[in-house]
Amino acid sequence: MSLLALSDITIRYSRLTAVRNVSFSMDEGEILFITGPNGAGKSSLLRAIAGVTPVAGGRIDLAGHEITGQAPENIARLGFSMVPEGRDVFGSLTTEENLLVGTGMHARERGWRSRAADELEAVYATFPMLKERRHGQAGLLSGGQQQMLVIGRALMTNPRLVAIDEPSLGLAPNINDQVYERLIALRAQRQLTLLIVEQSSARAMMVGGRMILMRGGQIVLDGDARTLGNGEAIQAAYFGYEDN
Amino acid sequence: MLQILFDALSLGSLYALGALGIALIFGVMRLVNFAHGDVIAFCVFALLWPSTDAMAIVFAGQLPWYLLVPFVLLCGAGLSVLCEIVVFRRFRQANPATMMIASFALGFVIRYFLLMLFSSRPKSISLLPELSQPVEILGARLPLLQLITIVTTMVILIGLTLFLRQTRFGLEMRAAAENFSMARMLGVRANRVIMGAFALSGALAAAIALIFGAQTGTLDIQMGASIMLMAFIATVIGGLGSLGGAVLAGFLLGAASVIMQVMLPIDARPFRDAFVYGAVILVLLFRPQGLIAARGTKERV
């Protein structure tokens, strides 16, 4: 059974339809890129899975539970962890406090404190820079540091599926390379299932894995990133040339 | 001189506690809760047995202080949480203006409920009379109550700071105040955080009610409204949603009121409040975002 399944999802903002009858599913351990131009509905789709944007139609299942219309805090408890566009660091909190916010939801389980402490050490091991700035105000970190912080924060909840919305946004290319390097290492280490939204398909072709290309609220292509990336099909799909 | 300082501090304490109660709720749900003053009034009247006689029939007010204080705090927290469950929960998705108007309406409901039970006549009560004895400090004679007010406020402020900084619930509240939807995506329960904020805010209202009741000895269903106005102004000057700013501005307003009372020429003293509000306008002209601008102006979801 798939870890995440969307069927026939439609999202509307008053009269504007952002996503139209989108269906796809993801298996445990998969890496899936959703790419496409501005306004294709990629972010809306992620926000709908997270439960912060309501869907107008369709059904979403996560880890064997229907989550359509569920509260974000309940979806998080099922193992969905989100890194939103623009990162949404809690700027007035310290770096460490940012990391700890998400551990509270396991507070009912036994031994959660020691597990949270282990998890914190693991995140610090991956991002040593965060440990150096652990007691500093998170709002004062640089863009790249904040991106690493929010990835670390997403991992702290011990998720089954991590969704990242435009990790490259506003980052210098070399910083962006570093972020992806860590992500790929993390994925190998923890068998993370990753759902990444990016505007350009270049990154997906570099990293490999599966890629879905969206345009105008619909899926236009779905397949292996490297195979898709080398065809003319992707250019046609991305820019919307039709039969010429 | 010392007398002026203590007057300023004790008046500022009331404003600061009131402002904190408003700022806490604004922080987590962008609601300016105008019913807060009426929660204060409700807590004061919780000391009495309902009757419309001019004579106050003291009920809870007779309890020894170690029972009285928890009882009133619980009344405040309980009423405040009830307001959230019955009224504000239905308005979570509404825009801030709608919520504000709902809070006005709720305030009137509470006020007229009290009016029905107690009539509109002010009643006198001697609450914790042992506190009105003067004590001598550095040659100045100060009412013991004033000292207790200041000390209690300090204890509440320190306690609240520790709670917000050191506990998991405090961390969740601060995260939610800054970015509610992100906090929820990290598993922070919206209802728990909001109810927690209302409970704290209600307990703060109860603390004000106790201090005010003991200070003035007069109970009036309008009394909450006057504190509420000053407290609201303090939250705005402090920077809406900023807890530190609310407290700071509360004390500044208290100080401004007391200092003007002393420094203004005798003829102008009846217009003291006009001068205080004038100063408020000046502050807002120069710092429209408030003294300490709050972070987290992100939209609620």
Automatic annotation (TrEMBL), chain A:
Keyword Phosphoprotein annotated: no
Entry superkingdom: Bacteria
InterPro entries for the chain: AAA+_ATPase (IPR003593), ABC_transporter-like_ATP-bd (IPR003439), ABC_transporter-like_CS (IPR017871), BCAA_Transport_ATP-bd_LivF (IPR052156), P-loop_NTPase (IPR027417)
GO molecular function list: ATP binding; ATP hydrolysis activity; branched-chain amino acid transmembrane transporter activity
Chain ranges of the ABC transporter domain: 4-241
SUPFAM superfamilies: P-loop containing nucleoside triphosphate hydrolases
Keywords (A to Z) from UniProt: Amino-acid transport, ATP-binding, Nucleotide-binding, Transport
BP terms from Gene Ontology: L-amino acid transport
Stored Pfam families: ABC_tran
Family: Belongs to the ABC transporter superfamily.
Protein name, as recorded: ABC transporter ATP-binding protein
Protein's organism: Mesorhizobium mediterraneum
UniProtKB/TrEMBL annotation, chain B:
Principal cellular location given in the protein's record: membrane
Pfam families: BPD_transp_2
GO-annotated cellular components: plasma membrane
Keyword annotations: Amino-acid transport, Cell membrane, Membrane, Transmembrane, Transmembrane helix, Transport
MF (Gene Ontology): transmembrane transporter activity
Record membrane topology: Multi-pass membrane protein
Entry's transmembrane regions: 12-32, 39-59, 65-88, 100-120, 140-164, 193-215, 274-294
Keyword Metal-binding found: no
Subcellular location(s) per record: Cell membrane
GO biological process, one term: amino acid transport
Protein family membership: Belongs to the binding-protein-dependent transport system permease family. LivHM subfamily.
Name this protein carries in UniProt: Branched-chain amino acid ABC transporter permease
Organism: Mesorhizobium mediterraneum
Source lineage: Bacteria, Pseudomonadati, Pseudomonadota, Alphaproteobacteria, Hyphomicrobiales
